[in-house]
Each structure stands twice: as C-alpha cells, then as structure tokens.
Amino acid sequence: MVSIKSWVLPKSRRDEAPHFSKAQIATVLEQVATLLKLKDANPFRIRAYENGSRTIASLETDLWELNLSGKLTEVKGIGKGISALISEALGEGTWGDLQSLYDSTPEGMIEMLAIPGLGPKRIKQLHDELNIDSIAELTAACNEDAVSCLDGFGSKSQQKILDGIDLLARFQGRRRLNVGLLYGETFEAMVARIDGVEHAQLAGSARRRRETVGDLDIVASVKPENVEAVTEAILAIPDIAEVKGAGDSKVSVILEASILERNLDLGTLDGGVFHAIGGDDYSQMESSGTIEAQVRMVPPHVFAFTLAYFTGSKEHNIKMRQLAIDKGLRLNEFGLIPEDKAGDLKGLDAAKYSLNATNEDEIYQHLGLDWVPPELREDMGEIEAAKSKSLPRLVMPTDLKGSLHNHTTLSDGVATLEQMAGAAMDMDWEFLGIADHSQILNIGDRQIGANAEDLLEQGEKIRELNDNWSDGGKNFRLLHGAECDILPDGSLDYEPETRQQLGHVIASVHQLSTWKARDEIENTEALIKTIEDPTCTIIGHPTGRILQGRDGFDVDLHAVIRRMGELNSEGELKSMEINASPYRLDLDWRFVRFARDQGVPICINPDAHDTTGLRDVWFGVQIARKGWLEPKDLLNCYSGEEIEALLSR
Ligand code: DGT
Ligand code: CA
Ligand code: ZN
Question: What digits encode the pLDDT tens for the residues 37-85?
Fold first, then answer.
C-alpha cells in the first residue's frame, strides 16, 4: 500500500503502552524497507525490514505480550535490531532514529512510488541520473524524451510512466460515484454514532448522485455545548490520514481507504474497463486512494438549511436564493431570514429570526415550491417544475422488472444462463436479457465473442428454460439477444439472418481506437447507419467512456438521438442504454432527458459479467433519476409479458 498522505511515522494516541497496534508497526517496517530501497541501502538490511513487516502482520499472538515476555527475538523473521525497534515503539511510543530516514527522503520520490509500474529501484535511478525528485519533474523529463535513453528504460516504458502519471492524477482527483458513496456513507455512519451527534447526513455531489465525487460534505446536527467533544471524537477516527483544519464547527480531513472495512469488490469487469482503470495496478491504486471530507456541525434547528445549502448544486442554490430575495428573504446555510428583521446581523445571529424548517420540504414550501429530489438539483428546470407542481415521479430501483444487457460464459461472463436467471429471480425480476459478445470481439489473440452457431444454440437453451418456467407457472423469462460489435463503417457483426433470429440486438463500439482517431462527423454518420439497421434495438454504452479512465469517442449524440426519435415515431423500437456499470454510466445523464423528450425509450443495463454485477442497475437508476425519468420512460419497467411481446414483434 502506497499512501502518500500517511508517509509519516505514527504518533501515539495513548497515554500508556502499548502505544501502537500490530498493523501500525507492520506498516512502518514496510515503509522503512521502501525508503531504504530508495537509498539503495544494503539488500540484507532491506530484506530484514520486509520480513519483519510480513511476520508482524501475520502474527497470531498478541504482540505486546510477546514483547513483555522477552520472546520477540525468538520469532522467526524478526532480528535483534528490529525487535529492539519494536520494543521501543510499543513501550515508549518513539521510533529510534527512523525520523531522519523519513526526513532525508524527498517527498516527491515517495509520491512517485504511487505511479503504477514504477518501483523504488527505478525511482532511485531517475533521481541519481536525471536529478528527478518529483512527479512534475518526471513528467517534464518524459515529455523531453530524456527518460527513454536511460539504461533499462526505453520509449515504451517512458510512455507507460506518462500513462501511469495520468491515471494516478485521476485517482487522486475525483472518485467514481460507487467509491465516493462507499467512503461517504461509511464516514457518515461513523460521525452519526458519535455521542452528541443527533443526526448526520451526507450532502454535496454524492447526495446529488453525480457520476464522480470531488469531496464529501457531511452535515451534523450538534448542540453548541457538544461541538468541542464531537470535534475531538471525529479527529480520533483512525482512518484519517491528515487533518486539514478543525475549529469553528467545521472539520476538514483526508480519509484513507482503510475506512472501507471490506475491500472494494471489483466483481468481474470486462477487459476494456479493466485495462482503462489501471489493469493489474488497479486494486493497489484504489486501496491507496484518499478522499477529502468536511463535517459541518450546526445546531439542530439550523440542520435542514445547512443540509440543503451543502447539497447544492451551487447553480440550484443561486436560483433558490433569488426566489427568496424576491420574497424579501435571505437564504443561506443558517436559515431563511426576513431581511427587515435580520438587518445588519450575520450568520447564526441573523438566523435567530429565520422561518422554521425541520426538514427540507418545509424550506421549499416557504418558497412556494414542491420538494426537489437532490438528484434534480442541477438548475436544469427543476425549480420551475417545482413551482408548477410538475416534477416527475422519479423511477426507483424497485420499479425495475428486468434488464437487457448481460453476459454469460458464452462470451466473457463467468456465470451460466441458469445462474444469471436465478440471480435475476432473487431480485424479483420478471425478465433478463442475455446479450453476449459477438464473434468479432477479441482480447489479444483470444476470441471473446460467440460464433453464430453457438449463439443460436444458446437461443435453443433459452427457449427450453423459458418453457420450463412457464409450465411451472413462474413469471420469468430469459430474452435472447446479443451485444453486436459496431464495425467502423457502422454495420453490425454477424450475418443479418443471424441477427434476425434474436429478440434484441445491443449495438456497441468496442474498437475504440478507430473511433477515437476519427472526427465527430464521421462517427455520427456511422452510428446513425447503425441505428437504421432494422435489427438494431439498443445502442450500448454510446460513447465508450470509462469514468476516471478514458474519454469516449467524439459523436453528436443529439443528432443520433434525434434520428432514433424519428424511427420510434415510425413505429420502430430504438432504445438508448444507460450502461449502469459505475465505471461507465454512459449514456451521460445530461443527455437522458433529451432522449426522453425525443420519444426514445431508455434501458438501464448492468452489463453484468457475473451474478453480483446485476446489482449495478442501482447506479443506472440514480443516473435515470438525474435524467428526470419516470418508470414509463424505461424498458426495464415493462412487465415480462409486455417486453417479450415488444421484442418479438
Ligand atoms: P464536488 O465536491 O466537486 O463533487 O461537488 P459539490 O457539489 O459537492 O461541491 P462542493 O463540495 O464544492 O460544495 C458543496 C455544496 O456547497 C455545493 O454543491 C453547493 C454549496 N456551495 C459551495 N460553495 C458555494 C458557493 O460559493 N455558493 C453557493 N450558492 N453554494 C455553494
Ligand atoms: Ca463536495
Ligand atoms: Zn460492451
């Protein structure tokens, strides 16, 4: 684990021994080994620290008792020097002369350790031969082509370093919604449990379900007399890597991945996604990622106002504030305050005169509005709709009765038809569409996609299974489709006769490099040709973007969607996918409402490659909500019977 923010020797938080935990000791030993590598120290010394770290981490007995009994040196893998160091750390809370080792290593060299594929040995070499001490200097050197000529490097590894730096910057910037929410909801629960906190709630972009989250904003209801104690309790949370500020009823911290008790479960990703998010380096980067978080403590009667304010968006808030001004009111994070009473007073002093609101609903009511769901607070017409009482009844996860784009072992999925069907039934779904990859798809030399013959055989199998369920009175069916590759000219993989035998065809671009090398006009033309193919039912992940991984190809989605709208009005079925994988969330929510308005039905698809992948539809629902969708706008909310009839037309 390479976490930049926590490359400091831990300070004891206890008054008495033992001052540190087993995990803390193991981390320090591991870091020392790495620091020694950066200094090109004696390999035996490095090995001693590495072994020590591993031994301590896997030790089953109590480290403190072992130390008291004097038997630490008897443990295999712990030498004399290291055992003395551990004794001192546990007993005194100090770290010998290790501080100087930490101090004498340039911070930039430690930062470079987080670059995927770059180890301490090469960092040392870059430091010695090119005087490189920071990621910025390394980037410059790569761009000047100064790294490729070093011994053991080459233009390929130089490019790999640049790619790694780019990826790292994304991980340290915003985080994908699934990760941001996991951090946010975990931290929210920890704050909520603290004595003196009456209520804590996650606000900001995470509450609005943006596809990525910058920092976490938590609002806590705390009586003024408890603020100091609650502040202290928050700062004592062990997963805080760094405190950026504390005071004035506000705490700003950086959280480490250790806050996520269970590791992020990657599930089965498709090859394209896996590669774009860092491949084999992904889990290491994710577990060394951090996120900033703010907690704002306010008195209970102010809570609703602060929650609304920090939920944002800023643009939504500005419109709300203008509505308030028109009514002679001042709206801010402390209240909704009549100007004539507030006068020159500011902040909480002015808020003494605020109108009352115990929840957000009442704030909106004071301004003559219906309550606006957080997902809609993007100043995209929601305030106008709230005024005229015409906000949509947003779709909920429980409205879904199925989905259409899922993989099995026939292509790159890891579950069988029966297993996928079973998982769908467990979710109370009435249908599950199977859409394995088409024959042209390869990863490396390996064919991932299904041959036409195997595909049609899958259809037979599906019919059999469906007959069994139907005979048994079970309201469930598999729907046979395929995810057909869109070739560069817009035509579809498989012969038309093969595609005609399918209930649905999900048309997707996977040869992204070709599409990214072309301009918007060419790509748009090709995609329009695709949707005009009579067998094409759904466009899958329409831009191919991977959030925090790679951009999609250029395409005029408005034009594509408009054409789809025309075809739908002529009686055809042309649907746009919201790919619900949290790595994609493509179609972007900003286009979703436009598609609805053009009469294009949307389909939320988990693109599941295993049974748990079906759960990703939850993220798709969040994006559908951000796009104002109601159940009627979604193919997922048709009954099993209806969708079966629709697709077999
Ligand atoms: P993020 O963190 O970049 O993913 O996005 P947000 O929306 O969480 O933005 P953030 O963390 O900067 O601030 C949280 C909310 O606080 C924001 O959505 C609206 C509110 N807010 C922050 N700054 C301002 C401001 O200058 N004016 C107004 N009206 N609201 C603000
Ligand atoms: Ca935020
Ligand atoms: Zn795909």
Answer: 999 899 999 999 999 999 998 888 889 999 999 899 888 889 899 999 9
> Which of 251, 266, 298 is at the close of a domain?
298
Ligand 1: lining residues by beta carbon, under 6 Å: 204-205, 210, 213-215, 217, 309-310, 312-314, 317-318
Residue at 7 is within a domain: no
Q: Which of 170, 201, 232 is the last residue of a domain?
A: 170
Nearest to 332 by CA among 306, 352, 356: 306
pLDDT tens digits, one per residue of 604-614: 999 999 999 99
Pocket test for ligand 1, best of 211, 217, 320 (most atoms within 8 A of CB): 217
The rounded Å distance from CA 327 to ligand 1 centre is 24
Contact present, 601 and 592 (Cβ < 8 Å): no
Task: Calculate the alpha carbon distances from 40 to 124, 134, 289, 518 in Å.
Answer: 7, 18, 27, 47
Q: Which helix (H) or strand (E) holds 371?
A: none
Residue nearest to ligand 1 atom 3, measured at CA: 214
Atom 25 (ligand 1): residue with closest C-alpha? 314
Residue at token pair 């998982």: 423
Q: Are residues 520 and 618 in the same domain?
A: yes
pTM above 0.90, yes or no: no
Dihedral-angle region of residue 93 (phi above 0 means left; psi in -120 to 50 means alpha; beta otherwise): left
In 3D, which of 276, 338, 347, 361 has the Cα closest to residue 550?
276
